[in-house]
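LAB NOTEBOOK - FOLDING QUEUE
OPERATOR: T.R.
BATCH SIZE: 2
PURPOSE: Compare the predicted structure-token outputs for two unrelated chains run back to back under identical settings.
PRIORITY: normal
REVIEWER: second-year student, initials M.K.

ITEM 1
FIELD SEQUENCE / FIELD STRUCTURE:
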Amino acid sequence: MELLSWLGSQLPSFWNSFTTLSLSFAVFILLFDHMKRRKRWNNYPPGPVSFPFVGNLLQVNFQCPRLALTEVSLSEKFGKIISLQIGWKNVVLLNGLEAVKEALVQRSEDFADRPPFSLFDHMGYRKNCEGIMMARYGHGWKELRRFTLSTLRNFGLGKKSLDQRVTEEAGCLCSAFSSKYGHPFNPRFLINSAVGNVMCSLTFGNRFEYNDEKFQRMLHLIEEAFNIGAGIMSQVAHKNLIVSKTESSWLPGFDILREIVKEHKETRDPGFTRDFIDAFLEEIEKAKMDPESTFSEDNLIFTVFDMFGAATETTTVTLCWALLYMLRYPDVQSKVHEEIDKVIGRDRSPDIEDQVNLPYTNAVIYETQRYCDVVFAGVPRTTYRDTEVQGFFIPKVHPDADC
């Protein structure tokens, strides 16, 4: 009883100490949050009020991020250039043709850099080994981009030889569509396979059957990885929240690409370059003694991954929108069909040279590209230097090793 009485007498004192400690801790946390978020610049874009720790995350619709990021009420209240805070990260959203054109065309170098992503670190990305899409702006990125464009042109990009491959693949796609006659089906699977095969012909030197298990697994995993990368958590997750950093084989899609690269290494003829992978392997041989080179086997995997992800997703979505519009506007579909029959007929396949004689069809294609919703937002960018857009100041982002 005496012990209980003593404990009872100590309880108010303990409770007061606990309350004081809790309040002190809360004040410390709020001050820390304020210090992290307090910096503001003159003429910085306006935006909604942010909350401690989470910033404007509570205002993001995770089910449909596009609606949250381009919400009409935000544009009406703050204009086409809006500032947000995602956690402790300052983010500026550009909406409208004028703002985007000024930033990405007139001031392209100012906005050429990429922010660090903990998710990509987790996948094995590191200095001079970041692929093209998410690489930091600098010599390595320029070197790899120049090589990639030059090599793809050598293998037909922008030339008639590629047009022939596209025409052949379009024939395979039409045959696949015809096999579904009388039965409902989702065209995305077949379209994605056809677009992926065009990239395969440039990158691997061959195409796959649409039902090839390895081919479909690779396309699915690449699409899945890009969806994860586009998610909001990939931009706000702190690297310490990721349990462990692994090699790039963490993503199964990379394993498939590694198998293909391994096959190329085993069958490669130094005197004959078959495709993009062979050309990249040649550059790896040349750069063996340069530790700062961007040409490595890991970076080959990341670069091919970027090429597939960027090309297949955007082209597939655009073609799906085109089919949807043809169904929605049958009168337009009839006019396109009539023009194609008149100019090309039904005895041969279309050719790139027919384009100049198909003004209505071209107009429909361009209008589809203008109107369709390919991606809800562009790939995130980081300012390379202090700059401004539409009169608003956008500061240079200094890389933070702890972000």
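ITEM 2
FIELD SEQUENCE / FIELD STRUCTURE:
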Amino acid sequence: MDLKNLEFASIDFESTGHREGIGDEPIQIGIAVMKEFEIDKNSFFRSYIKPSNDLQITSRSQSVHRIKNEQLEKSPVLYELWPKINELLGKRVVVAHGAGTEKRFLRSFPMHGFDIWIDTLQLAKKVLPESTDYSLGALIEDINANEEIKAICPGLDWHDALFDAVASLFLLKKLLTKAEGRLSYQDLLKL
């Protein structure tokens, strides 16, 4: 199977930050689609999410993603976004960098059916074993894609969910190109 013929949908969440005994909840979602190894800017989806029970953003998380509680007051709750999430992720290979958080938040929709995932963190460890930093930002810096991402995501930056989702697609494209002939579709599913 030629991986370039697959459609990929990258997802990223920003969260309230973990609170002992409470956990965390998503407060922003970003999704972007790549078809035939081209990022589809018309697919971009970005929304704030109102957490349940008025869960407040931790100061640590706020310092990372710069999202304030006031920005969420009139935002939809996660389940209201399900039709759009399903439209963008359904029938595509779902991509995330360090996919654990995204998978956990999507468990809110137990029948979602997003079974095929590629974690770009795990893929990078396989394709770039010489790397010393596997954070998304460091890997994007290594492939010199930062300015290109900023150009197609004007006004956004790191720790914005859409920016990070787009960055994951740039990284995926680079990793799959580098691994061409060495990784099969089945290999990707084992990561």
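REVIEWER COMMENT (ITEM 2): The chain has one domain: 3-190.
FOLLOW-UP: none requested
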